[in-house]
Fold Intraflagellar transport protein 80 homolog isoform X2.
Amino acid sequence: MRLKISLLKEPKHQELVSCVGWNTAEELYSCSDDHQIVKWDLLTSETSQIVKLPDDLYPVDLHWFPKSLGIKKQTQAESFVLTSSDGKFHLISKLGRVEKSVEAHCGAVLAGRWNYEGTALVTVGEDGQIKIWSKTGMLRSTLAQQGTPVYSVAWGPDSEKVLYTAGKQLIIKPLQPNAKVLQWKAHDGIILKVDWNSVNDLILSAGEDCKYKVWDSYGRPLYSSQPHEHPITSVAWAPDGELFAVGSFHTLRLCDKTGWSYALEKPNTGSIFNITWSIDGTQIAGACGNGHVVFAHVVEQRWEWKDFQVTLTKRRTMQVRNVLNDAVDLLEFRDRVIKASLNYAHLVVSTSLQCYVFSTKNWNTPLIFDLKEGTVSLILQAERHFLLVDGGGIYLYSYEGRFLSSPKFPGMRTDILNAQTVSLSNDTIAIKDKADEKIIFLFEASTGKPLGDGKLLSHKNEILEIALDQKGLTNDRKVAFIDKNRDLCITSVKRFGKEEQIIKLGTMVHTLAWSDTCNILCGLQDTRFTVWYYPNTVYVDRDILPKTLYERDASEFSKNPHIVSFVGNQVTIRRADGSLIHISISPYPAILHEYVSSSKWEDAVRLCRFVKEQTMWACLAAMAVANRDMTTAEIAYAAIGEIDKVQYINSIKNLPSKESKMAHILMFSGNIQEAEMVLLQAGLVYQAIQININLYNWERALELAVKYKTHVDTVLAYRQKFLETFGKQETNKRYLQYAEGLEIDWEKIKAKIEMEITKERERSSSSQPSKNIGLKH
């Protein structure tokens, strides 16, 4: 990826340009110390003077009023705020009429910023004051006051906090009074510029110590650049939070959100005092010290999938290369390319007006449809369909271009969704809530309606990243997520009535990805790269989970690596310095998944015998239990030396009825309540009581006996035997109450139990012959 710079031969301004701002994706306004506001039309390459400001008014900062979210009519902003050196800020219409001028600060107003909703304006000045104003320019409050000038300010993602500079310090101050203020030393020189991105919640700062730095919203350092030759005078996040730009003397740099640099350009600009990204994130404009306005387009972005490599060579041209046979195709577009995604044998490209869908089998005839709103901020792909996110909503389309659904939820803000907070599979869409970060919304892909009974997935901690598995049946769909404590959890998306368990898979996980071909999960844990070959093991037999993992040392990936993709058995990881590392994992677990999904149990056993690896046998054991194939499970458990489980499986085989077998398989997986329910529904009350006795679940055993008025003496007898073994006295009030005046006769109890077992045998033999549930003899 690099920047394509365009700079006019002669500057349009006579003095230094102090600020620039995009009105639409093709229209820019610039203000200069020569008192002119100039409009740049990039479609026609024309410039025109909008207004000549009074001679005593020197502009400092400019910010356009934000577009209303979700209102499609308003395609461009109608007014902007201009701060000036005389202590005022001015609300100016796009035609150049000064609607209002407000006395704001003593000395220059150094920065002015609208919040994301456009309901409030924050200004900062040389007098060290931070003031909040209403939309119409009425003073609401003075948020803070200090002895040093405040050079830069930024709103937090939810417009509830403000970030500002104080010499070498950065301060985050919430709007509500008495809330905790966060302050830290960020640079060794005065901080000149800050920016805070609403999508990734990361902070940028630039200072006179000639460095730029990336921080998280708690003030923890994520990246610090090497010192440059000159102070860094400007920084700005791209709208989607994936890139940022840095400006200095004769220097323009394009960087990844983790800090490493994609491109360095040395245009003849003097210092770049202000950088702003276009609304669609495809180009930047810089306000230069020598009167120029520098424009730079982001080109040469690259997308890779299997044998294909797609490169954006120009604004409207892509080159597709097949690395196997070096065949090259050129794709031409009518408008400029904004976003693209290559996955599942399809390339999806959104331009400013249309969406193109190419199949990797045929690059010549794309499917084209018009977009409701031009600025697509995110494209996600699954095997059967893809998702587009723009300022107006979330839209799901099939690869044939048919509109499928548009999920909606209360308080939806599509401008802050990214690949970490939205996930798509063939049947489900998962979206992390921004208002309450502990919640995940789940939608049915085909209809856009909430999944199941509409219950939300709620976790005890804030969730950072979510990912749906891609294969298997809808009923088995799982979502994995990383929370604030960096715990990796997994849960089922199917939510009907009963609360689904959220189970922890690992700790200190920084990034995760599901394979696109089978449900294998990989993640980077602390200093290890871990692959969960069969994450469902946690639902089947948690004891053998460690045996189903593959782990390797991850110290070679340096600090803060990120998983880019997991295609087939190839995992691509990007290190903190921007380099890509490819890891191949064993292809056998994927083959095992394939055999099991098509019930080829003998082939699966044969594969495990061929590979001779404990991880394979452990995965097969868990898969067999999950699919109720106890014969295969017995072989697999024997191979990993779990003798107690082999014995238990054998005892299940000898049970008289299929309901009992089913119940004991459920118990094997730890689903006690479900096992009990199966027995009670089949009318096997004694067996339901007995499993509770075997598990020392005394309260429940007595409760069932009393409720069904049967075997109360059996429960009391077993309880008495249990207490005698440990030499204890009965203290439970309920047991004392029922034991009063009751003689325990073991002979009688044994006869009753025998009768129950005989009854069960007779029932199962008299019912028509049915297949045992996965129990082959």
About this structure: Residues 91 and 100 are 5 Å apart (CA to CA). Confidence is low (pLDDT under 50) at residues 70-76, 768-777. The two ends are 62 Å apart (CA to CA). The chain is about 20% helix and 40% strand.
